[in-house]
Amino acid sequence: MKVWLIGAYGIVSTTAMVGAKAIEKELVPTYGLVSALPFFKKIDKYAPFEFDFGGHEIRILPNAYEAAKQHWELNRHFDKEILEAVKDELELVVAKTGTAVNCGPGILELGKIETLEQKGFSLEEIVEIVEKDIRSFADEKTVVINLASTEPPLNFSEEYHSNLEGFERMIEENKKEYATASMIYAYAALKNKVPYANFTPSVGSNIPALKELAEKNKVPHAGNDGKTGETLVKTTLAPMFLYRNLEIVGWMSYNILGDLDGKVLSRRENKESKILSKDKVLEKSLGYSPYSITEIDFFPSLADNKTAFDFIHFRGFLGKLMKFYFIWDAIDAIVAAPLVLDLARFLLFAKMKGVKGVVKELAFFFKSPMDCDVVNTFEQFEIFKKWFLKLA
């Protein structure tokens, strides 16, 4: 199958490419891949583990190998021999120039960039170019996945976001102030009947206009914000307190990270989307809102080694207040990259099975799943597994 990655030279994208090619060459095992679990064995019939990659990028680099090497030099997040073994395949992945419309000041932290809007293109021209790039790569077994930097929260417009007619008028009238890059990529994918997943907290396809387009074109899509680390633990632990009738009085989450993701999130506007995504899960898990603090801070020397410190204050029998602490310490790209490959495979499976619109059953993979209030990891997994087994 083919996977078009938005943010193709980022650490998650390049780690996914390295991992995919290394697994194809049988150099590494399949740890971390949900699609490799026995429950999902039949996925091989619909989406064999064979990938071609392409994508859009705003950072100026010659190819995916050079981008992967740059990330490796900073993080050493896998054996160098693995990278060199897939060098030839990654050198073939040369990203197209993308857009960063309304991506916030965080993108200034990415270094030297080149965008379509910098070249003076109108919104309509940007959309046409993005569509052309995707069409030139895509076939019937292609999925688009957004892995670009987090955008600021959307300022929703009833006129331009609530229906497809208004959205397309926004493009025609060059109303850039109402558009975001993630929307443009989602629109280009869904318009060309290519399944789309939003692995970021950005809006992506999560507006009525693009949900309408997905239904109209009978295309599956899913999101938002891949659930990979601290929030995965949070949505796994919170149900334990609920099931044992222990009241959570307060939950503090403090996240530190470096690398480009940390630099982007060091800007308040970009950080806000991520914090909103993380904060929602407690109320949905518990049915009430304990006092909560969620902080994300840039810590340069950590690079991609994202660390989260969580403190939980809870009340038990006889009203006694007690404490629970945990630390999550993981390479962000290593826990995220396999889920990118999983989502690509399961969205292709959904398309082949005639599924259209928001695939709520893929909520298991996201912090803020579209059109789904279930955030309990265990419940999500059972819903997902039953959906797959029923269709397969």
Key terms for this structure?
single chain; 392 residues; alpha/beta; Rossmann fold; Dihydrodipicolinate Reductase, domain 2; 7-stranded parallel beta sheet; 4-stranded mixed beta sheet; 15 helices; globular
Provide structural commentary.
The protein has helices at residues 11-24, 43-46, 64-75, 80-85, 87-91, 123-137, 158-161, 164-172, 181-191, 208-217, 230-243, 259-265, 268-286, 332-352, 377-391, and strands at 2-6, 52-57, 96-97, 142-146, 196-198, 220-223, 247-257, 291-298, 305-315, 321-331, 357-358. It is of the alpha/beta class and 392 residues long. It has 2 domains: 2-226 and 334-391, Rossmann fold (3-Layer(aba) Sandwich); 230-330, Dihydrodipicolinate Reductase, domain 2 (2-Layer Sandwich). The strands form 2 sheets. The chain has a 7-stranded parallel sheet with strand order 3-2-1-4-5-6-11, sandwiched between helices. It has a 4-stranded mixed sheet with strand order 8-7-9-10. Strand 5, helix 10 (208-217) and strand 6 (220-223) form a beta-alpha-beta unit. It starts with a strand and ends with a helix.
